Amino acid sequence: MDYDGVLAGLTLESGAKILFLVADGLGGLPHQETGRTELETARIPNLDTMAARSTCGLHDPVLPGITPGSGPGHLGIFGYDPTTVRVGRGVLAAYGIGFELKPGDVAARINFCTLDAGGRVADRRAGRISTEENQELVGILGDIRLQGVDLFVRTVKEHRAVLVLRGEGLDGALTDTDPQQTGVPPKEAGPLRKRAEKTADLVNRFVVEGRRRLKSRHPANGILLRGFDSPAAIPGFRERYGLKAAAIAAYPMYRGLALMVGMEVLEAGESFESQVETLEKAHAEFDFFFVHYKPTDSRGEDGDFDGKVQALEALDSHLPRMMKPGFDVVVVTGDHSTPSTLRSHSWHPVPFMIHSDWCIAGATRAFTEREAAAGMEGRIPACCLIPLALAHARRLEKYGA
Questions:
Q1: Contact assessment for residue 350 and residue 31, using Cβ atoms and an 8 Å cutoff
Q2: Residue closest to 293 by CA, chosen among 260, 267, 315
Q3: In total, how many domains does the chain have?
Q4: Which residues, including other chains, have CB under 8 Å from residue 384's CB and lie 6 or more apart?
Q5: Where are the alpha helices (DSSP H) in 216-362?
Q6: Contact 25/334 with Cβ under 8 angstroms?
Q7: What pLDDT shows up at residue 401?
Q8: CATH label of the domain that carries residue 298
Q9: For 399, how many CA atoms within 13 A lie in the half-sphere containing its CB?
Q10: How far apart are CA 328 and CA 355, in angstroms?
Q11: Whether the Cβ atoms of residue 208 and residue 251 lie closer than 8 Å to each other
Q12: Who's near 226: CB < 8 A, 6+ residues apart?
């Protein structure tokens, strides 16, 4: 389906405002003792009440059965087909911290990690070290020199950093060094095509030298790299949807995603309360607001079921204040599921609701996975969410005679 071609002639300018609230890693799985998911366990009266007055359903971020990374997950809910529009996590991390990438650069996301005495990954996030410690470690790695290439290492946040390689003949078609599990050693970067062999060799030499320099550190005595890519142009929100869009996100990677799709990134602060304050102040200036909420994903990846429940309850407590400025359409969803029982992203479909004056409220009584499955919208591709939001905002003309 050529959504871009169809939407190109249908989008309308109007005063309607859209709030797009993304609870990262929203979906979950039942707790083995209670049989209830995190959403089913949490006391979220505001979200439940809204869901009962909304049209609800489930979305697949990429395709059924495919576990998405955060980049593809967000591209999907922003209306882009993540199977054809691909952006590596390294590029997103670089943009998110304001690093100016040049054509031909290769960027990768770094996780500082903990390696055991046998060189196996004991903790992929090094206990979620502080950003201050991260900056110290980046200083240790930042003066590594590799012949024929300029190398940049920059802090992102907590255990996250970014590596950028700049030089002639580089290619970002590489496999990750992050094995995505513990109890096994990091992998070597491998070329996915012949011309990427040089870059793979450079990356592996960087990793060896980095590990040598960090071996006496604890807990961050190793590095894992993933999401290698080079920058590419993506059609923006204004061009595709006629929306003046703003992003309110605390974590750099999501700020980078927003920048790439043409949103204006607003100062968000460090707390979600400060994000809500930004939303209030900027309400009059934009048509579309993407507001990102990270704790649901972090607690899910930590395997902290109760923590994810608490994160959902905290988000719910902010909802009345977020709604107060007034929005014609409110979409609440996630970019993927992160069940605490799996301690990772998963392939499970993600609940969503669309609230407007034009929705048909169905049998949905609460905002949960099972209730959403019974919703009017059924199960749809994530890239349908933006067109649905535009339709509810009366920003699409009739198609055809």
A1: no
A2: 315
A3: 2
A4: 59
A5: 237-241, 252-260, 272-282, 295-301, 305-323
A6: yes
A7: 74
A8: 3.40.720.10
A9: 9
A10: 8
A11: no
A12: 89, 90, 108, 109, 111, 176, 177, 178
Q: What's the CATH code of the domain at 210?
A: 3.30.70
Q: Which domain holds residue 120?
A: 100-229
94 lies in a domain? no
| DSSP letter, residue 37 | -
Q: Is the pLDDT of residue 2 over 70?
A: no
Render pLDDT for 25-72 as a digit per residue (tens, 0 to 9): 999 999 999 999 999 999 999 999 999 999 999 999 999 999 999 999
Radius of gyration of the chain (CA): 21
Q: What is the pLDDT of residue 86?
A: 84
Pairwise CA distance, residues 265 & 390, whole Å? 21
- Do 187 and 307 lie in a common domain? no
| Within a domain: 399 | no
Under 8 Å between Cβ of 327 and 284: no
Q: What is the pLDDT of residues 239-260, one digit of tens each?
A: 899 999 999 999 988 998 999 8
Q: Rounded to whole angstroms, how far apart are CA atoms 138 and 105? A: 19
The answer on 73 and 118 residing in a single domain is no
196 shares a domain with 240: no
Closest of 18, 4, 67, 101 to residue 330, by C-alpha: 18
DSSP 8-state assignment for residue 245: E
Q: Is the domain of 252 the same as that of 385?
A: yes
pTM: 0.84
Whether 398 maps to a domain, the answer reads no
Strands 55-60 and 350-355: antiparallel
Measured distance CA(163)–CA(154) in Å, rounded? 7
Beta bridge partners of 247: 265, 290
Residues 384, 147: Cα–Cα separation, whole Å: 47
Q: Are residues 7 and 31 in the same domain?
A: yes
